[in-house]
Amino acid sequence: MTTNPTDAVSAAEGDDTPLGLGDGDDRPVSGKTAAPQASMVDVSVLQEIVTRQQALGKRLLWLFLLPLGITAAIVPMFFVLNARLGEVELGTKLITIERTFTTDNNYPWAIGQYERIAAKHPSAPILARLGILYFKLGLLEADHEKEKMALQKLSSAENLDPTYWETYRTLAYIYTVTKKAREAVEAGQTALKLNDLDANTYNNLAWVYATSDDKSVRNLELALKYANEAVNLTHAQTPEFLDTLAEVHLQRGGEGERDIAMAYLKSAIEIAPSKDKSVFLKRLNTLFPGEK
Predict the structure, then answer these.
(1) Which of 1, 11, 209, 269 sits a CA distance of 20 to 30 A from 181?
(2) SS3 (DSSP) at 19
(3) Which class would CATH give 196-292?
(4) Cα–Cα distance measured from residue 182 to residue 186, given in angstroms and rounded to the nearest whole number
(5) Phi/psi of residue 19, nearest 5 degrees
(6) What confidence tier does 285 reach under pLDDT thresholds 50, 70, 90?
(7) What's the predicted TM-score (pTM) here?
């Protein structure tokens, strides 16, 4: 019996078999309809898992990078802090050395301490300090080799930092004491260019300009200017500077200069520490014998 399309529809409607069968596919109903649904569920779950894994990966990456970033920021700070702590430690040690030296004037000990520091922390200030210590010890012991050592230390200081003014201040002092007038003027003028408030150098140059036997160096007007500058900068409270000013007035030799010189020398005696008064009294008696 032949069935037309209408009958096919009616047969289908009357059949309790779900639609979709009759195309030559004899697989169970569940096999035809369940397979596509299972695939859709699996892909969706996988996509969600992948998304979560990606988010977790990003979080783990941040957790990994964050400590690196913090470390990168901290390391330079550590080195800076460590350097500053080293400077504080060095500063404390220098204070201790100077305090002890001021108390007992132990030049060999102080030199030994500074030499150890210079070996680890070579710098212009440390080497300049060694220079003056070696020179003064040489004066005490009449040892010219220590004077040479002093000049070597100062030369090293200048090489390390040509702008450190105290190197030239110390050189000016050494050359003034050793009567090397031209060298004293050269070093002293360099010191003043770097520090125009250096009272000690003003004083030393005033002495050189006033007392030098070298006519090309001797300059009483400049001596008076520099001597007054040194006294003014220290508010007339340094007896050595007042003594220099007295010497300048004596060298000028004009009317009333002698009386001015005596007045300054007496002022030096008044403010000098007890242990130094005898030095200035001797100067007064030598320059003004029998005068009051």
Answers:
(1) 269
(2) strand
(3) mainly alpha
(4) 6
(5) -65, 155
(6) very high
(7) 0.70
Q: What are phi and psi of 21, to 5 degrees?
A: -90, 165
Query: Is the predicted pLDDT of residue 55 greater than 90, yes or no?
Result: no
Residue 34 pLDDT:
43
Q: How far, in Å, CA of 52 to CA of 33, rounded?
A: 30
Q: Please, are residues 173 and 132 in contact by the beta-carbon 8 Å criterion?
A: yes
Please check whether residue 115 is in contact with residue 99, taking contact to mean a CB–CB distance below 8 angstroms: no
Two tokens at 107?
Answer: 């030049």
Residue 250 in tokens: 């004596």
At 225, list the tokens: 């200017």
Q: Which two tokens stand for residue 190?
A: 């360099």
Closest CA to 172 of 189, 184, 160: 184
Name which of 140, 148, 196 is nearest 168 in CA terms: 196
Mean model confidence pLDDT for the chain? 82
Tell me which residue has tokens 């007890």. Answer: 274
Distances (CA, A) of 130 to 8, 103, 150: 120, 18, 7
| CB-based contact 223:202 (threshold 8 Å) | no
Bridge partners, 159 (sequence order):
none
Cα dist. 26→10, 18, 55, 86 in Å? 21, 13, 46, 91
